[in-house]
Protein 1
Amino acid sequence: MQRISSFRRHRIAGPILVVAALFTIATAFGVASALPSAQMTVASGTSTLVSQGKEIFLRGCSSCHGLHAEGGGIAPSLIGVGSAAVDFQVGTGRMPMADMSQQAMQKKPLYNAQETAALAAYVASLAPGPAAVTNESLNYERDGNAAQGGTLFRTNCAMCHNFAGQGGALTNGKYAPSLMGVDPKYIYEAMVTGPQSMPKFTNATITPQEKLDIIKWIQSADHEQNLGGASLGRVGPVTEGLLGWVLGLGLLIGAAAWLAMKAK
Amino acid sequence: MKTSQKVAGATANYVDERTGAAKWLKKNLTKVFPDHWSFMLGEICLYSFIILLLTGTFLTFWFDPSQREVVYHGSYLPLSGIHMSAAYDSTLHLSFDVRGGLLMRQIHHWAALIFMSAIVAHLFRVFFTGAYRKPREFNWLIGVGLLTFGIVEGFLGYSLPDDLLSGTGIRIAEAILQAIPVVGSYLAFFAFGGPFPGTAFIPRIFIVHVLLLPGLFLALITIHLMLVWYQKHTQYPGPGRTEKNVVGYPLMPVYMAKAGGFFFVVFGVTAFLGAVASINPIWLYGPYTPGQISAGSQPDWYMGWLDGLVRAAPPLETHAFGHTISWNILIPGLIIPGILFTGMALYPFIESWITGDKREHHLLDRPRNAPNRTALGVTAITFILISLLNGGNDIIATHFHLTINGIMWFTRIGLFTIPPIAFVVTKRICLSLQRADRDLVLHGRETGRLVMMPNGEMLEVHEPISEAQKWTLTQHQTPEALPAPLPASATVGLKGKIRARLNRANAVQIPAPTLTDLKELGDGHH
């Protein structure tokens, strides 16, 4: 007891306690946020793809998008958006929306690949629109030009998605998501359908070839090793300044305090 | 005597007979400096400046400050075949095809960030301890100059590679230049040698960055240090320390060893950061083209607060006589920084005008004993911090799931409301700390030991503090209100009334305990 209470009064006891408390909170938060969220399973239909898709649509989407996908006060019409839009929105988990927030967030998809394909087939049957693609159909590795794609990316995409595709802020809480780890087909579909705040890049503005160039550049940026050491998030000077102050000047002030200590 | 000693003695004698160095060295090597960690913040500035000179020289061996258009054929494939300026091309070459080049670039940039943050930390130390008071006002002015030139030097430095991020920064600098009423557009044409971006700007800022400003730095740092040497270093109050002495250790050998060692610590930390943490990855930004921009474009932190002010400014413009006055750039980009830096430069003179204190000061103030100064400093820091936060509003918005509009409105309102609150809170904290000091002197330290008296009364045992501690806590003088120490004429007229009002506010202090206070408590008081 004597030793414990003398440690309690030690001058470094306070700082150690603060560090320990912060560590505990951070760990608890990490564990809590890593817990798996509840999953829902949806029974699959039996008839043709379109009627199966219609069934899922009526059950899961029509409350907002209307019984005939004609749209309503809170959701747009889906007539003519094509299977690409469905594949992107449902395949990345953005639809169905979790809540009416500023924009649909990427999350674990509610429907599996087969159900998503059925929904896409149903929506595509309403009116012609951009068709969904597969990762295999996009041979960007062979056909794309990363350097060309980088220039196109910086001209058309970087103003929202940041120079390295890390994402960025838009107005009123909306944002352009990070493009790291995104399937090439979703990048392609996003370009042709223009989800959320994103403009639509038709084949007249950016040709299919240029889309492959852009995808190749994004993939190369995604897989590029951090050439200068820790990347600090690839978000520019904000994190650099923070590290300079906290670690750089922090270490130096620590060293100064050590040098100025009186020898005991 | 050994042969080696004979040779050393003969050599020293030979040099001394021709230079007379022995007498000068004997006097100056034994010069005494006080010891405190906060006195070494300025050293960090000096050492990182030396590192900047050394690494910067290395970079000039390969950097080509030219906006001539070239096609990239280096080893970084994602930019292969892209048109770019020779400046950007040579920076890529330096980073990927010169051995150690990227490391040197990163050490240079990290050292620049540390240089600036150490200057600011040093400024805080000097300000909050009142070290700028007579006779050190000139050194304060030189320091403000070094800070200002440091901001410009840093901005020019990271603008040199002509990448997408820095080109955006130059574009904003051009906008600020253009916002100067009437002459702005002419100045911008003069600086860029024609319309933006032109081909003249990078070569021009290169010579300013590597010759003009470093030369100015060397001159100012030399005068700065010579004045420290001549006026002697200030010291914190304590037993045996007076306005007329310096208590500490001699330069030789104690500080020679400490300072020499500290230089290598600074070099070590910057080299460590340069080796493990990426800074300014220009290959990811791409070459500058006026038609492109990246989300989250920010300047380095020492410009970030200016960017934050510009981001917060509402879109106000006036059109008159064929000229446009862009208040949205003029006020946050030029007027507010102008007021802040002028106020900072003049502060020593303003303070001595308010207090009427014209004495020399070599003993530092403990920040709590100058509540108004401390509160004013915290107010300014709060203002800058809020602006700095807004400078990174897009990064904060995406990483903390906030809305950028919300952060902007927080800034717009907070810039006016939070600094005054910070002033009041800081002043109250200072006065409370003064009361705590007074209590400590009069009643001693709380030991945390509870004692039960025979009659059942519970008491906490207080232990008297040492005489040395008592001295430290009571040595400061309580400022007196005008007009007592000044002639009544000093408080006449509007200027005089303002002065008297500020002076009275400054005189609000908890008086340090006097001998009478101690005697009144009597002996044996718990």
Note: Chain B has three domains: 1-30, 36-238+251-296, 431-521.
Protein 2
Amino acid sequence: MQRPRIPPQILRLLVLTIVIVTVYSIARYFLTPQSFGMYGWYRAVALDEIAARPTTYAGRKACDECHSEVVQRLAKYEHKSVSCESCHGVGQAHAENPDVAVAKLTYSHCVRCHEADPARPKWLKQVKSKEHYTGQRCTECHIPHQPNEVP
Amino acid sequence: MIMNPQLTNSIVEILPRVEGFAYPNEATTHPLWSVLIVVYPYVTGLVAGAFIMASLVRVFNVKPLEPVYRLSLLTSLAFLLCAPLPLLFHLGHPERCFEIMMTPHLSSPMAMFGFVYAWYLMAVLLLELWFDYRKDFVEWSKAEPGLRGIIYRSFTLGVHDVSDPAVQLDARMGRIISIIGIPSAFLLHGYVGFIFGSIKANPWWGNVLMPIIFIFSAIVSGMALCVFLYMILSWARRTPIDMDCLDQMQKFLFFALVVDAAIESLDWVHRLYSADESIHILKSLAAGRLFYTLLVGQAFCGTLLPLLLLGAIQLFGRQMAVAVRQRVYLASSVLILVGVLAMRWNVVIGGQLFSKSLRGFMDYKLEFAGHEGWLASLGLLLLPFMILAVFVKLFLPLSAPPQGGGLPAMKPSGSTGAA
Amino acid sequence: MKTTLTRRRILRALSGAVAGLLSLAASRKAKAAVQKMLVASHTPKGYDPTKHKWLMALDVERCIGCGLCVEACKTENNVPLGPNYFRTWIERYVITKPEPGSGELRGEVVVDSPNGGMHGFPSSLVPKEQILKSFYVPKLCNLCEHSPCSQVCPVGATFDTPDGAVLVDPKYCIGCGFCIQACPYGCRFMNPITKTAEKCSLCYHRITRGLKPACVEVCPTEARVFGDLKNQAPDDPIQRFLGKNKAAQSLKAHLGTGPRVLYADLDKEVR
């Protein structure tokens, strides 16, 4: 009986192709991460991993837990939009352990925002620190938590 | 010799600085995609071009080119084997490269690399070579003793059938694969062009013509490489150069160069005429930071000069002495090779020399050593030549006429050996 | 004849093995998928990414260029301190008056961002009398709807989350840099330590905990506004912003990336 015979070289290549495809499929099965493709073409656990990173800034609510008096006072004056951590620095470590001190305030904190600059909007109160009561500290005249009040 | 346009740049070591404004993240000291990524499209282009040269014999039956058929295929293979190396070297995490095959993101042109590459290597080049060489492998494995014999025997994959019908089948398969191979070669290099052409964020890259420009510059560079290698190999082996073959190669090279130059000019005409918001910065880029590589290297030395030289030969070649013609051919193929390398440089590095804010230029300091330095890229450019030397030693023995083994089956009477 | 028969047998055995392996793989995959769903149903702190849509908006008129946001971003996210690594930064635009009699609308546009504006800005080199207009523009990831960066990532290491952020998976990124090239806004950089791409994560670890992103938290003038479009709180800052700035623009909208971050009072020179 004469049946159609696959030429040997073609057969050899077919076998080789099957082997390669099989190896690839097996590799793909084992090397694709578990959560891949749950939401989209990525590892879904990456969302949890990124969300699990520690924070350094605690947020105003955390400050309010112990310093609510200051926070409420601040809310009545022009600096109400300024967050505690804008001036006092990162607070997560301090919130977890009050013994950890927050950063010391200096003169540079004031001029960082209030130094005169043509690019700054007109509504912002600005001074030329080189001409404005040189030799005196800002806090001698201004109270940062109540900037509208001048003693 | 090939590195010339790049060397001129590296000698002028400029401190990283920004002229005008760049987004802070852009003003890095080294381009994100460095010389390695210049080498990558260059090498891939040579692969595609050399393959097209071989296909002229197989598919289009250009008989005079038969002496370079196998050399072109082997060149293509040697360069293809090295093509992924620059990419791999440049990755921040090369150990994770398998992810590109395991979870390929289908919307990313780069994710297709693994598959396009595997297809081209295994389904096109290796197959075509295997079918072409099968009969020789069987014969050589019997004739050659020792290690060589073992190598040849392993390449037969255990198939020793060299009967007439089997050899005829080989020839038929080779031709079919070659026909599939032409669009595959276009795919391979068009895809590399698409990696750049699809970046709409960068006006220097994001361009529909980019894949086509890449394909034609690839064909031109690959053909020039075949000319160059054929002449060098013949001189090294002291075998006579088949002038018929060389003239024919130059003819195809000339026509490919004409098309390439036309498309690249069209690109510039279109950019200048449609003049979108990026045109000012691109004009100053071309006239400033890319002056030597773009206008001098790519346009003048790499395109215009060879066009004139080869055009002159097309017109008056028959009256010229063989020695003159050979020198002109060698010179123009070297010029083209340098010019296409300059073109890759202009695309890859040029696209990273200006800010995407279109407000300034970056300067880059390119290091000599280091894994993204000159030395590494030079090594990666030389590596395929070394591999090719081994291939030539193994697969292009002096004794056998360097000619496609399967060809007689297609037209048994017509084909003769090399000169 | 005999050899082909044995070959045939081998082939049959092989294909059988392949089929078996594939069906095994399929079954195990299905099982794993079910398991994943079960495990993922209690993600940390009951945060469900499909129930939120975060957005940031910027009021150019309110930015004073203090650089607190840039500094806070670097601290909060452990961003390398070098001058080319920013998840957010501030640009200063100075537009000069046209030459008298030139008939031009405006003079030169000078832009700078020394160290991303992290330590504020030195006074501009352009004298005040020559300035037509000057302002600061905070920049960050534009949270594109059709983000070109996630489109080009070859492995799926950067992606658009269901809640509107665009994140990088640092454990999966291969460091090819394609996303950095594809971002039209220069918002991405290669982290020199991890060798992976990095960008603004919208402080994903903060917003999932009910906090504001660090830059929004420290911004003293409320130039940065942040909120959830799916859960409108009463007196929501983002709703107030949208109500007040109906003509708010986005950056490089012509590229079709669908940038979601909105800018109020944006000058046409800003790119």
Note: The beta strands of chain C are 54-59, 88-96, 109-112, 131-140, 158-160, 166-168, 189-190, 197-198, 224-228, 262-264.
